[in-house]
Structure formats: structure tokens, C-alpha cells
Design brief:
binds guanosine-5'-diphosphate; GTP-binding; cell cycle; 8 helices; 307 residues; cell division; Cell division control protein 3; three-stranded antiparallel β-sheet; coiled coil; alpha/beta; 35% helix
Length: 307
């Protein structure tokens, strides 16, 4: 457990039980087709999460690499894939919910709605279990983080991005991602990040940010600050290994002027994103989902029902 930061405030018994059983951690990825969602998720899992064939196991066409030409069905078709991974000795049942096709339609009015409904239906399922007499086996499929892929236009957020985030931010931890960051020059990435952040602030959109409190040690405070400074994470994904100048084979993308390495912190923010999601802030994202987002949904729901 060394180095697993998020556990300090977790009640002991629950903590031990969770370690034995492992945790559920559910992520949702949303964004237009072709922005690299599948590629990034595969890299996050280190191995292929989506089967190499063009089937996700549930009959829906999914693309990886060459199969990416498969056109997803019109509209938003939500599918989920899970795998067990081990991070710092802790078993994590990582589920990724994919909503392919978001923003692909000609008319994208209310494209956010089916995604909001999916997130809320997971809250409803949890609520129904909480209300049962025997609550020992609650399965928790609530979405702990939503990775929202922003197109690297260089021009800030588009109307569809703003609409989406404004409608979702009270229900899920939003993690904005600048997709395909290698298509912008480093200087453009910095400018684009500033524009995206300014838009997020201007529209009063809440996004997930690591924050420190008075109990954090200086190292944690510094880590939090370093991660927060990278938001929105500008990432590069690749399902290929390429030859670096020194001959090493690295996951990356090859250009005439050199190689962009996926797992090099100087080249893009993939490592910081992975650290935050699966190591340093896993617990915080789960807590925020349970204590703030779910709780406020539950309160609103019960009030509406007249309880
Ligand atoms: P999805 O539709 O969002 O799931 O996108 P995919 O992961 O299927 O990727 C679509 C295409 O973009 C594929 O040909 C990928 O190889 C490519 N791709 C994925 N990530 C990146 C990236 O970071 N940069 C660039 N230039 N291409 C990428």
C-alpha cells in the first residue's frame, strides 16, 4: 500500500474489506468519434480492453486501430467493458462505459440527455439497493469520472461541449481532456488549454480538481498542485510501439521530425491523467461521487417524491 495516497481518511474496517474485495471504479468516456477514446482507454488498461475483433462482446461494433472505420450506430449507444487491474497492490475493478456517437449527428440538440439518463439510472439502481433490508451486497456501478474529449480545434469550447458539461456537472466528476494533442504544436496546446479553462470558468462549469486540505503532507500538496496545473489534460494515444532515436521501443506516434511518446510526461499529459484516475485520486473521485454527487441527486429525488 506504500504510496497509495487516497486512503488516509478511509474508515479502517471498510478499508480492509475493500482491499480484500477490491474496488469498483467506473469511468465513462464521451466525445465525437475519431477523437481517440478507444485508443486512450486501451492504453490506460495497458492491454487491450476492447477485444481486437470489431465486437465489444455485446454485439455492438467497436473500433480499435484498423477496425476504427466501423461506423457506430446512429445515436448514442452505451456499452461497458470491465477488467481487473492492480494498482499499488490494490485490486481495482475498472469499468469503462463508452458512449460512442456523441456529437456525430447533424442535429446534436440534447445529445447530452441519454448520457445524463444513464448516469442517473445508475444512481437509481444504487438507491434501490440502499432501500433494501439486506444491504450487505450492494453493487456500485455509479460513474466515478467522466472523461470528456474536446476536439483540438485551437478555438476553445464549442457550443456542444458547453451544453454537455453544463448539463452533467452536478451529476458526475467531469475530467476534460484535449484529445489528439499531437495535432497541435506545444505552444498551441498551452494556448488552447487556457482558452478551454477560461470558457469553463465563464460558463460556471464545475470540473474535478485535486484539492489539498490542512491534513495533507507537503508532498501530497505538491502532487495535487502539479496535477491540477495540467487540467485540461492534453493527451496523445497510440496502440502502436515505435522506435525511438535511441532504439528503444515505446508506445507512441512517429513523425518525420521525431517520436511523440505516450508515456513521457514531457510530451503529453497521459501519465498525469492515469496517475490521478488510478492512483492518487481514485478514492477522492469515489468519495465525491458518493458524498456529494449521489447525495444531492438522492435528496432531490426524495424531495420530488414528497418524502
Ligand atoms: P474513438 O472513435 O474516439 O474511439 O477513436 P479511436 O481510438 O478509434 O481513434 C480514431 C483514430 O485516431 C485511430 O486511427 C487512432 O489511431 C487515431 N488516434 C487515436 N489517438 C490519437 C492521438 O492521440 N493522436 C493522433 N494523431 N491520432 C490518434
Amino acid at each position: 500500500l506504500n504510496g497509495y495516497v487516497g486512503f488516509s481518511n478511509y474508515p479502517n474496517q471498510q478499508h480492509r474489506r475493500s482491499i480484500k474485495r477490491g474496488f469498483n471504479f467506473t469511468m465513462m468516456v464521451v466525445g465525437e468519434s475519431g477523437l481517440g477514446k478507444t485508443t486512450l482507454i486501451n492504453t490506460l488498461f495497458e492491454s487491450k480492453v476492447y477485444p481486437a475483433s470489431d465486437s465489444a462482446g455485446d454485439g455492438s461494433p467497436r473500433g480499435t486501430g484498423a477496425a476504427a472505420a466501423v461506423v457506430p450506430p446512429a445515436g448514442v449507444d452505451i456499452t461497458s467493458v470491465s477488467a481487473d487491474i492492480v494498482e499499488s497492490g490494490v485490486k481495482l475493478r475498472l469499468s469503462v462505459v463508452d458512449a460512442p456517437g456523441f456529437g456525430d449527428a447533424i442535429n446534436n440538440d440534447e445529445a447530452w440527455r441519454p448520457i445524463l439518463e444513464n448516469i442517473e439510472s445508475r444512481f437509481d439502481a444504487y438507491l434501490a439497493q440502499e432501500n433494501r433490508v439486506n444491504r450487505s451486497k450492494i453493487s456500485d456501478n455509479r460513474v466515478n469520472a467522466l472523461l470528456y474529449f474536446i476536439k483540438p480545434t485551437g478555438h476553445g469550447l464549442r457550443a456542444i461541449d458547453i451544453e454537455f458539461m453544463k448539463n452533467l456537472h452536478t451529476r458526475v466528476n467531469l475530467v476534460p481532456i484535449i484529445a489528439r494533442a499531437d495535432t497541435l504544436a506545444p505552444r498551441e496546446v498551452e494556448l488552447f488549454k487556457a482558452k478551454v479553462l477560461a470558457d469553463i470558468n465563464y460558463h460556471g462549469i464545475q470540473i474535478f480538481k485535486p484539492v489539498s486540505d490542512q491534513f495533507d503532507d507537503p508532498e501530497t500538496v505538491a502532487d495535487n498542485r502539479a496535477i491540477a496545473a495540467k487540467i485540461p489534460f492534453a493527451v496523445v494515444g497510440s496502440d502502436r510501439f515505435v522506435d525511438r532515436a535511441d532504439g528503444a521501443k515505446v508506445r507512441g506516434r512517429s513523425y518525420p521530425w521525431g517520436v511523440i511518446e505516450v508515456e513521457n510526461e514531457d510530451h503529453n499529459d497521459f501519465v498525469a491523467l492515469r496517475q490521478m484516475l488510478l492512483r492518487t485520486h481514485t478514492e477522492e473521485l469515489r468519495d465525491e461521487t458518493d458524498v456529494a454527487l449521489y447525495e444531492s441527486y438522492r435528496t432531490q429525488k426524495l424531495l420530488a417524491l414528497g418524502h
